[in-house]
Design a protein that fits this description.
224 residues; globular; transmembrane helix
Length: 224
C-alpha cells in the first residue's frame, strides 16, 4: 500500500516542484501570454491535486480547496489585481476555517504573541507602504485577512515549523508585492523574493497539513 501510494500520489508533488521552480526562471518572458499564466498556476494547482488525493475527510477537502483558489488567484492576477486578490481572499477564508477546526490544545504565551503580531502588524505594514495609493484600503483589508490566516495557522494543531512557517512566508511574499507596487523596495529586490517565498510557503502548508492528517488517521503522533 505505501508503495502504491508513492506511485499514485507523490508524482503530483514532483510535478508541482518542477512547475513552481521552473516558473521563476521564465516569469519575465515578455511574450508568455496564456501559457505563462497557466504555468504560473500549475505549481500550486498540482499541490491542490496532491492534497485532494492524499488528504482525508473534510480537512483534506478544505486544504485542497484553499490551494486551488490560490492557483486560480495566481492566474487571475495576470489579468486583474483585484480579481486575483479576491480569489486569494476566498482561499484564505477556507484556510482559516481549516486551522480553526484544528486548534492547538495549548497555546504558549510566545505562540499567542506571535499570532497576535501577525494579525495586527500585517495590515499595519501594508497600510504604511500603500497609503495614499489607489485602493490602499483594500490592501489593508486583504492584508488583515492574510495576517488572520497566518495567525490561525501558527496557533493550529499543524506543525508550526512547516504550516506556520509556510503561512508566514506567504505573508512576507504578499507584503513584498505591496512594497513593489508602492516603490518602497526596488524591483531588483522584490523580483528575487516574491515567488520563492510564496511557492515555498504553499509547499510547506500543503505537505505539512496533508502529512498531519494522514498521521492522525493511522494513529501516529505528529511533530510541531
Amino acid at each position: 500500500m505505501p508503495r502504491r501510494a508513492l506511485i499514485d500520489h507523490r508524482p503530483w508533488l514532483l510535478a508541482s516542484l518542477i512547475a513552481g521552480v521552473s516558473y521563476f526562471f521564465v516569469a519575465d518572458d515578455p511574450i508568455g501570454g496564456v501559457w505563462l499564466m497557466l504555468w504560473k498556476g500549475a505549481g500550486v494547482a498540482f499541490l491542490a491535486i496532491y492534497a485532494a488525493f492524499r488528504g482525508k475527510g473534510i480537512d483534506g477537502l478544505l486544504i485542497a480547496a484553499a490551494l486551488m483558489f490560490g492557483a486560480l488567484g495566481d492566474i487571475a492576477l495576470e489579468i486583474s489585481f483585484l480579481f486575483g486578490g479576491g480569489l486569494f481572499a476566498v482561499g484564505h477564508l477556507i484556510a482559516i476555517a481549516l486551522y480553526l477546526r484544528n486548534r492547538r490544545e495549548r497555546t504558549s504565551p510566545s505562540q499567542l504573541t506571535a499570532a497576535l503580531a501577525l494579525l495586527a502588524l500585517t495590515p499595519v505594514i501594508a497600510g504604511l507602504m500603500t497609503y495614499p495609493l489607489e485602493n490602499w484600503m483594500l490592501a489593508i483589508a486583504y492584508s488583515g485577512l492574510v495576517g488572520a490566516m497566518a495567525a490561525a495557522a501558527w496557533t493550529s494543531g499543524f506543525p508550526r515549523y512547516r504550516v506556520g512557517a509556510g503561512a508566514v512566508a506567504f505573508v512576507i511574499s504578499d507584503l513584498l508585492i505591496f512594497a513593489r507596487e508602492a516603490a518602497v523596495l526596488p524591483d531588483t529586490v522584490t523580483s528575487w523574493l516574491i515567488w520563492p517565498l510564496y511557492y515555498c510557503g504553499q509547499f510547506l502548508i500543503a505537505t505539512g497539513v496533508v502529512q498531519t492528517l494522514r498521521n492522525r488517521r493511522i494513529g501516529e503522533p505528529h511533530r510541531g
